[in-house]
Amino acid sequence: MDRTLIPFCKSPVRSGLFLILYSLTIASPLRAQTDVYIGLQALQEGAALNLGFPAFLPQRPAMLQDIEIAHAAQNVVRYDLLFSRYFRLLEEGPLVTPGRLTESLEIWKKHGAVALLFVQAADLDSHLTLDAKLYEAATGQVIFEKFYRFPKKSRRAACHTLSDDLVRHFTGETGIARTRIAFVHNASGAKELYLMDYDGENLARLTHDRSLHILPLWSLDAKALYYTTYRHGNPDLYRLDMESSQSAAVSTVQGLNLPGSLSPDGQEMAITLSRQRDTDIFLLNLKNKKLRPLTSHPGIDIAPSFSPNGGEIVFVSDRGGNPNLYVIDREGANLRRLTALNWADSPRWSPKGDWIAFAGRPGPREKMDIYRVDGTGTRMERLTLGEGYNENPSWSPDGRFLVFTSTRRGRREVFFMGMDGSFPQPLATLRGDSFSPAWSP
Question: Whole-angstrom distance between the N-terminal and C-terminal Cα of the chain?
Fold first, then answer.
C-alpha cells in the first residue's frame, strides 16, 4: 500500500474529541441496496468491492486551502479503505459533477465500479467540512450521504469517520480507522508508554517517569490504559486516564501486579499476582478491589485473556514443564491444555472467539513466531515464519487484523498483518525498540 504522509496528519489526536456531525441518510430503492450488498458477499469470500474513487473536490474551487484539504483528505481515506481490504479502489475515470452525473456514472460503470464515492471538502476558518455522497453506478441512486463538520485539529478524525461510515454502510461492521494502538517504546532511554493511530500516525508519548512501564491494556471505552510500572520500585498496576493524563494505583501488593484482560462487562480484570510466592491468576473486582484466585499451582501462571463471552480464560502456565497455553472457566474449574510446544506466551482471544493468537516456538533453537489456535486446541496455524523474533500479538477490534512486534528489520518494531498472517508490514518506523502493542476498542 502506498502511504502518502499528509502534513495535517501529524498533530496528536486526543481522546474525547466531540465532532459536530450533521448526517442525512438518503433512502434508496431495495434493489440498489441489494446490488451493493451482493458485491460485499462476494468480497467476504475473498473478492473486493470495486469502488469508484475519483479525486475529492474543493468546495470552493478557487480557494487554495480547499484544494489542499481535498487532496490530503483523499489520501487518508484511500489508505483507510485499502487497509480494510474490503475495497478495490478504481481511480482512473472522469470527475463527477452534478451536470454530467449520468455520463460520468456510465463511464465508471464500464470501468467495473459497483458504487462511486463523491466528496467535496472545505477548509474554513475554524473547522473542516466533508460532504460525501455514494452513488450506485448502475442506477445513479444516492445510497449514502453525510455531511461532516469537525474542528481543524480533528482533521484526521473527520477522514477516519468517513472511512468507518463507508465500511459500516457496506458491511454492517464497525470500521477500525478511528482506533489507536498503545505500546511501550524505549527511545527516551526508558520504557515508556506511547500511543499512535491505527495507521502509525500521530505518535504521542504518554508517560515521562523515566522508569519501566510494561503491558498496556485498554479499558473497554478506550478512555484509559492499565499498565504495570516500576516507578515506585515494585511492579504495581496503575490506570492512566487518557483525558486528564492522571494515573492512579489499581493493585500494589508486594510482588508482581500484571494486567491481563478485562471481562466483557468491564467489571473485573484477570490479573497476575505473585505475592512473593507462586505466580497465579486472580480476578480483581475493579469497584471494590476484591480478589478471587483462579489458579493455585506451584510454578508460574501468567498472561490471562478472557474469551469474548466471559466464560473462559486462556493463560500461560509451566505446570506441564515448558510454558504452554491452558484454558480455565471463570470459576477456576475445567482446566484443559491447548498447546504442546517448546514455548508459548502472550495469548489473546480474538473478539469473535474463533481464535487465540499467541507467540510460540516448536523447538528451543527456533525463533518465536505468531500462531493462532482455536478454543479446543485441535487446530493450530503458524502465522509468521521465522523472520526475526515475532511476539506480543494483539487483535484489531473487528478480529480481522493483528499487531505484533518483530525484529525482522533489526530493531524490535510494531508490525501488522491479516488474521491469517497475510501481508505483514511495519506500522511505523521509529528510533529505538517497541514492545507489547495493544489495539484499542
Answer: 24
**Residue that the C-alpha cell 480481522 belongs to:** 400
Q: How many CB atoms lie within 10 A of CB 189?
A: 8
Beta strand pairing call for 57-58 and 115-123: parallel
Grid coordinates standing for 424? 505483514
Q: What is the mean pLDDT of residues 89-115?
A: 87
Provide the pLDDT for residue 279. Answer: 95
432 neighbors 411 (Cβ within 8 angstroms)? yes
- Maximum Cα–Cα distance for the chain, whole Å? 76
Query: Where are the domains positioned within the chain?
Result: 7-171, 180-439
Rounded to whole angstroms, the Cα distance separating 147 from 243 reads 27
Give the rounded distance of the alpha carbon of 42 from its chain centre: 24
Edge-first strand order for the sheet with 356-361 is: 343-349, 356-361, 369-373, 380-382
C-alpha cell at 68: 489542499
Region 7-171: CATH code? 3.40.50.10070
Going 332 to 336 to 341 to 347, the CA torsion angle's sign is negative
Between CA 250 and CA 229 the distance in angstroms is 11
Candidates 206, 210, 300; CA nearest to 256 is: 300
pLDDT in the model for residue 93: 84
Residue 372, all three cell numbers:
493462532
Set of cell numbers at residue 411: 530493531
Give CATH for domain 180-439: 2.120.10.30
Question: Model confidence over 9-63: pLDDT tens digits?
Answer: 333 322 222 122 222 222 333 333 444 444 455 455 557 999 999 999 999 999 9
Q: What are phi and psi of 31, to 5 degrees?
A: -65, -40
Q: Model confidence over 334-356: pLDDT tens digits? A: 999 999 999 999 999 999 999 99
Instruction: Return the ∠ at Cα 18 (arms to 17 and 22), rounded to 5°.
Output: 145
| Cell 509468521 belongs to residue | 384
Specify the residue for cell string 494505583. Answer: 249
**Which triple of cell numbers denotes residue 412?**
524490535
Q: pTM for the full model?
A: 0.87
| Contacts with 353 (C-beta within 8 Å, 6 or more apart), sequence order | 307, 308, 309, 375
H-type alpha helices, 111-256: 155-171
